[in-house]
Design goal:
This protein has 5 helices and 10 strands; from the N terminus they run αββββαββαααββββ. With 210 residues, the protein is of the alpha+beta class. The protein has one domain. It has a 5-stranded antiparallel sheet. The termini are far apart.
Length: 210
């Protein structure tokens, strides 16, 4: 009996350790949500002003690419305004199909200038971004969440009842240059960040048609 009890304890400990590992992985994991590359840089010989065109490719929840968007700015320090919803750690730990990681809504791509800002709309307020719907969730939570987006953002009491830790605007940005791939990621228990790495050497100086 003592041996069986010891085995049972070890198995239980292993299961608990595995569950703990999964919880930690969920809390510290991140997901790729978009990629950006510079497709063109032009210099106006008269004004000496340089313009930068970027390709913005967003991914849905299954990492399938959506229709790419192209934006041209008068400079190359560009930001992405997003609304980020952080859910309670309880849902992240459980790997909830909808609330198991921070949610996001890309709203605008913009560049600040001395005269204001150059802005391109990505998603209209209160819309569910195409490709973001959680098909396995058969309830009205997601629809109500996006419909009352601003209400949740401005009313902490209602947000708390919906299992939301907080909602806030974020605008990660960086300097975009040719020859680099910029990946926008969302942390499961946090916000957005931009990672950058050089384009693989085989693609350098190549114009590939698909």
């Amino acid at each position: 009996m003592a041996i069986l009890a010891a085995i049972s304890y070890l198995l239980k400990s292993q299961i608990e350790a595995t569950q703990l590992k999964r919880i930690i992985e969920r809390l510290t994991a991140d997901s790729r949500v978009a990629e950006v590359i510079v497709t063109d840089v032009k210099c106006n010989p008269r004004t000496k002003q340089t313009s930068t065109t970027i390709k913005f490719l967003e991914y849905d929840t299954k990492l399938r690419p959506l229709e790419p968007k192209y934006f041209t700015f008068s400079g190359n320090i560009i930001q992405f305004q997003s609304m980020v919803i952080r859910f309670d750690d309880f849902y992240v730990k459980k790997g909830h199909p909808l609330k198991g990681k921070s949610a996001y809504l890309f709203m605008k791509a913009f560049r600040l200038t001395d005269n204001g800002a150059e802005t391109f709309e990505i998603t209209k307020i209160n819309e569910i971004p195409f490709g973001y719907e959680a098909a396995e969730v058969k309830n009205n939570f997601e629809r109500k969440l996006w419909k009352k987006f601003w209400e949740y953002a401005l009313n902490p009491e209602k947000a708390s009842k919906a299992g939301i830790k907080n909602v806030q605007l974020e605008a990660p940005g960086t300097k975009f240059v040719p020859g680099m791939i910029y990946t926008i990621k969302i942390e499961h228990d946090g916000g957005l960040r931009i990672d950058a790495k050089p384009v693989t050497p085989i693609l350098k100086n190549e114009k590939i048609k698909f």
